[in-house]
Specification:
The protein is α/β, with parallel strands linked by helices. The protein is built from 20 helices and 17 strands.
């Protein structure tokens, strides 16, 4: 079909049908579906621009003319016909998790698979789509990012800094967008339609605007972790977002199949422009080509080359005379001297900052130390980004472990739980206490650290828990794990694989677990796809043996593929607001 032949929205084309779905926190979000006449296993998921709604895609869907593709578009919470304060969410990560729930709903209710799905996001919706692909690693066929809002043009000097100061006072705050319809399109009719649309709100919450910037910063830094085939569209006359950021993101993308198209003379709203047939035709061609490609199964899961290079660079010593070397040396000297007034820092130097004992202090999150200065240092230590993510990881761990136990008890009279590297196991013991020590749930906590196991036994006695045992065990001994009897219904690997850069060691553990867990049983596993302080940790902090704590951040797709390669299939993922840690739930198939 040529551009001239493209339909403007033929009467015979699919008409949208209205639906709602319930997302993770019980909120019902509105969405539209354009369904072809004949059943299909292909789907296109659309994420609208900030301030807008799904109805704005109606003409574009008709012009695309994808007769054998089911199309779905939501109204994000706080937008269009979905509930919530206009332009507000608890965080930008809330939109991303909503996107994951939307995909699962579409797959379940409309009988399409993720592998036969393409996602398209426009502006803020493009950042939602990119963050979802990065953080959750869905096995989608491809993605289209149209004028992604990776860097919004704020024409007021120091606007972002002022907004951050405002957020320190607490409470909700909103701003009104400066963007007028004439800045979005050269089409007078489309500009009038935008101005007259009662479902468009120009309000956006300050926390969402700041989170958008921070999430975009993370995506720009870690775009190489994204392997999904991608089409990126930019407008040559964009008054809303910076094209330099779009180019940087595209250049860093790890996708083997990627395309960038800049449409000269077009404004930000490319799908509502006077010459919108140009970007729409490009999208149509890309989608058709993507669906025509055969999905190739990955073979051996090799370490991601980009993250491996970063790891090797951090593993090399840095000359102390360089400015950053001096800065890290100063931090280490401070933590080795004055920092020891903090209980957390002192535990780190004694047992290793990566140890289960150190982690237990982080979980407890109670600042302790010698003198008020020590307690102040400990509070600053506990508030580090990584430790904040660890505590959110604990919440997600308990949520998914509870789900796995409940699903097991729905089909069996008992549930056996195994944690292969538990440390003291505080999060698991607290979970058991909250379940009132159910007699039909038994837990085995394994670790190689005798001191951590002793600490866990003390905690279990204090909580009066009789259905838990703590034993010595090597999480990387395949045969030892495989021989566990009786077989566990739920296996947990938390905070372990992140400490080891090589995949073969991880696979030894996973292969043992695949043989240990009963068919239909569950695996709960964690991952660290990104960290904002990798170099500081490598240059300053140490393991229990005194060696530098150097980490390789595994992209989420890599961790999921390792799990998949031994016979588990992931179906849930949780991530913290900063995208540092994930927790996933998989079933043995």
């Amino acid at each position: 079909m040529t551009i001239a032949d493209a339909p403007t929205r033929a009467a015979s084309g699919p008409q949208s049908v209205e639906h709602r779905f319930r997302t993770f926190d019980g909120v019902e979000l509105f969405y539209r579906a354009w369904l072809p006449a004949a059943p299909t296993d292909k789907a296109l998921i659309l994420f609208h621009r900030g301030h807008e709604h799904s109805g704005r895609f109606d003409e574009m869907v008709g012009r695309l003319g994808l007769d054998n593709v089911a199309v779905f578009a939501w109204d994000a919470r706080g937008h269009g016909r979905s509930p919530g304060d206009r332009g507000y969410a608890n965080s930008f990560a809330t939109f991303v998790r909503d996107a994951d729930e939307f995909m699962k709903h579409v797959a379940r209710e409309h009988d399409v698979s993720v592998e036969h799905t393409i996602v398209l996001g426009h502006s803020v919706g493009a950042v939602i789509a990119a963050a979802w692909v990065h953080d959750y690693a869905p096995r989608v066929r491809a993605m289209v990012l149209a004028t992604p809002a990776l860097r919004v043009k704020l024409y007021v000097p120091f606007a972002r800094a002022a907004l951050r100061v405002r957020m320190r006072f607490g409470g909700r705050a909103c701003v009104t967008s400066y963007v007028k319809s004439r800045m979005l399109t050269h089409d007078p009719g489309q500009a009038r339609a935008y101005d007259a649309d009662p479902l468009i709100s120009r309000q956006i919450a300050v926390n969402v605007l700041l989170d958008l910037h921070d999430t975009s910063t993370r995506l720009l830094t870690d775009a190489g972790a994204i392997r999904t085939p991608a089409l990126v569209l930019a407008s040559g006359s964009d008054w809303v977002v910076k094209n330099g950021a779009i180019r940087t993101f595209f250049e860093r993308l790890g996708s083997a199949n990627k395309e960038l198209h800049v449409f000269d003379g077009l404004s930000h709203a490319v799908f509502h422009e006077a010459r919108r047939e140009l970007p729409i035709a490009r999208v149509r061609e890309f989608i058709r080509n993507a669906f025509d490609q055969t999905v190739e199964e990955r073979g051996e899961v090799a370490p991601d080359a980009r993250s491996q290079q970063t790891y090797e660079r951090l593993a090399r010593s840095k000359p102390i005379y360089r400015p950053t070397g001096l800065w890290f040396r100063a931090q280490r000297v401070f933590l080795e001297t004055v920092g020891r007034l903090s209980d957390g820092v002192r535990i780190g130097w004694r047992n290793g900052f990566s140890s289960g004992t150190s982690l237990d202090h982080v979980y407890e999150n109670r600042a302790r130390g010698i003198t008020p200065l020590g307690r102040l240092i400990d509070r600053a230590y506990l508030n580090a980004p990584g430790w904040r993510g660890i505590r959110q990881r604990k919440i997600h761990l308990q949520e998914l472990i509870n789900r796995a136990i409940d699903d097991t008890l729905a089909t069996k009279q008992t549930a056996r739980v195994l944690d292969v590297a538990s440390g003291p196991g505080r999060y698991m013991l607290e979970l058991l206490a909250e379940r009132a020590g159910e007699a039909n749930v038994s837990v085995t906590l394994r670790d190689r650290d005798a001191a951590a196991l002793d600490q866990g036994r003390r905690l279990a006695r204090e909580m009066a828990l009789s259905n838990v045992r703590l034993v010595d065990g090597d999480a990387f001994d395949t045969e030892s794990l495989a021989s566990i009897d009786p077989k566990p219904d739920v296996a947990i690997v938390s905070g372990l694989f992140e400490l080891f850069p090589d995949n073969e060691r991880v696979l030894r553990s996973l292969r043992g677990l695949a043989r240990a867990v009963r068919p239909g049983g569950f695996l709960v596993y964690t991952n660290q796809p990104w960290h904002p302080q990798l170099e500081m940790i490598a240059r300053v902090l140490v393991h229990g043996d005194g060696s530098p704590w150097v980490m390789r951040c595994r992209p989420q797709w890599e961790m999921d593929e390792l799990v998949r390669s031994v016979g588990f299939e992931k179906f849930e993922t949780r991530t913290d607001k900063d995208g540092v840690f994930t927790v996933s739930l998989a079933r043995r198939v």
